[in-house]
Amino acid sequence: MNENTVDPSIEALVQETEEHLPENRPLDTEALDLLQNSEVKPNKTRPSSSEANAEGVPNVDLSVLHFKPIEKFFDDKPNPVFDDPAYYKTCLSGEGESSQRLHQILAKYLNCQDKKDRAVYRQQIISAYWNFLRSLAPKMSSLKTPLCKRMAMRYGVVLPSLFTAEQKDFFSRAFVENKTGEPVLYMDEWMREIAAGRLTPSVTDEMPAKKSGGASADQQRIMQLKSKNSGKMQSADNLLTSRETERHSLENQVKGMIDQMFNHTKVPGFENHYEPYTEYQRKMFSEITQLFHSLQKVDREMANYLRELQEAKEIAYSLDSKAAMLPTEEINASSEEILAEMTTIRQMAKMTCGRQGNQFPIFSREFFHCMDKTTGFRENVLRELAWIESIDPGCFQRIHRNVPNRIVPYVLLVPTYGDMGFCWEPFDRFNRITSRGRIIIPMYPRDLRTACLTAVADLRWQVAKEKASFDWMSDGLTGMYYQYIDGKKLKGDVKSFFIDDYILWMTKESNGTQKLDKEVRAIFWRYMPFDQERKEELKKRSLAYKELYQRDINRSMSDGY
Fold first, then answer.
1. Are 45 and 80 a contacting pair, CB within 8 Å?
2. Residue 432 to residues 229, 398, 465: CA-CA distances in angstroms?
3. Rounded CA gap, 257 and 251, in Å?
4. CA–CA distance, 231 with 233 (Å, rounded to integer)
5. Stated pTM of the model
6. Staple partner for 198: which of 56, 187, 375, 506, CB 3.0–4.6 Å?
């Protein structure tokens, strides 16, 4: 069946709906008119520029230290995809039984006047819609997939007439392609990367058994080895760069001291003679000797890191050669992996809403109450993440060999009416050094900043917990906080308490408003410190912060931070 033609079963359902509609239409007459009277037309909407972008998600760049400022949040020219009169039928066409089921329930829901029946249909739409997305998911990697199908997965927009005029305007002006260079992906982009094999499927507690044998098993192992080796190569490169910078600084100090040592004045009255070394110049002998010892140490470290980098590079060449010998089609994810990923995302989307939240999956002005700058579009989310990092500079940092590496996690944006973001992978299990974690953020929350804060707080907790390993209840950030909760005899999930306190730390304590217990404030001040400028400002506002600031000085003078 052509994707631009409508399934005969759906056509019959459209006619049946038209014959039995009541005179008083309860919700959206435009939506019902679209269900009834739309003609099947070829899809003439402009293709997404991201569909032609085969570069995939950006690689980790350890030299990037902060997010780039967002210059434009919306495009000046609206995308006409939501004005297509055949949007609904093009979206549902070619998806078989799942689209027929979705159409049936959606028509009944929009047409129903009884509150109890509407509640039943509303629950049925949830499973019907996610089954429909399972049908769409394997098609996200194809450049021929109509843009309306992508928008159905990206925004949950099945019927554009469920927009208000204002909502339709700013959704149509949201950027379709990723111009930011950051790993923030909508659901359709996420599935495209999964299907193309550029993004590994998410890890769950119950991993489905993967069929082994042949090139598929070899390809999987090579990808794992490449991921692990990539972490080693990036780490060695970063460490080598830092040591080169340190060597350059030490060499400049030596040059400056030698220039001062070789500067002699003439002896007054004996102009043909020069003064001996001054007391200050004599002290430079021992100082220069110490600098030379430091240079020798740095040079040894540089040699080791350079050797590690060369070895990792050779391994990378070898793995690339072996990967090139395998069949190309084996790189792509199987249909089982794609469907398993959709099952995982459905569970994640449900968790963003919570048990008592609104899990209705389709965009509707009945439930959507966000403004353009508070909707979870990519650019808006990056604005919030940049704000979080400006207050908590270490939120995306991972320490390796005492060197902090800034690694922004993958961010999956799901079109749910949830309020909670969270982390489900702190890093890749095959590459703990430089791999990205994974966080999920709902696009239609009551407060976008809080949704982003909960996700980053969860990432903070899980990274610290994995770092402490078996000692997570006694060591580091998680250990100190767990002991605080245990000492207070508080019942409940420790991580939930941490997330709530993290939100207060970022929104209140960062401005000098004391909302946390003294013990929690001390833990966060030490393990999740503000930047130095903010610390300097806070110590002037209260004795509590001045005391914490003094503790920093005492630690630096004793055994270090």
1. yes
2. 11, 9, 13
3. 10
4. 5
5. 0.78
6. 56
String of DSSP letters for 135-170: HHGGGGG-TTS-HHHHHHHHH--S-GGGS-HHHHHH
Summarize the confidence of residues 297-324 as an average pLDDT.
Answer: 84
Residue 34 has pLDDT above 70, yes or no: no
SS3 78: coil
Find out whether 45 and 81 touch, Cβ atoms under 8 Å: yes
Contact between residue 129 and residue 187 where contact means Cβ atoms under 8 Å apart: no
H helices present in 46-143, as ranges: 87-92, 97-111, 115-136
Distance of alpha carbon 97 from its chain centroid, rounded?
34
Contacts of 150 (CB under 8 A, 6+ apart): 48, 51, 140, 188
φ, ψ of residue 400 to 5 degrees: the values are -140, 120
pLDDT in tens, 478-520: 999 999 999 999 988 999 999 999 999 999 999 999 999 999 9
402: phi then psi, degrees, rounded to nearest 5: 65, 15
**Rounded Cα–Cα distance for residues 391 and 509 (Å):** 10
- In terms of DSSP bridges, do strands 184-186 and 410-414 run parallel, antiparallel, or are they unpaired? parallel
DSSP state at residue 197? T
The 10 Å Cβ neighbour count of residue 552 is 16
Calpha distance 198→295 (Å, rounded): 42
One-letter identity of residue 96: G
The Cα-based distances of 386 to 121, 199, 393, 439, 480 in angstroms read 41, 24, 10, 15, 27
Tokens of 6: 């409508």
Give the whole-angstrom CA distance, residue 557 versus residue 561: 9
Reported for 523-526, long-range contacts at CB under 8 A and 24+ positions apart, including other chains, are 523/477, 523/480, 523/481, 523/484, 525/551, 526/551, 526/561
User: Minimal CA–CA distance to 27: which of 161, 171, 153?
Assistant: 161
What token pair was written down for 7?
A: 């399934």
The H helix count followed by the E strand count for the chain is: 18, 8
End-to-end CA distance of the chain: 66
Confidence of residue 531 (pLDDT cuts 50, 70, 90): very high
Q: What amino acid is encoded at 543 in this protein?
A: L
Residue 369 in 3-state DSSP? coil
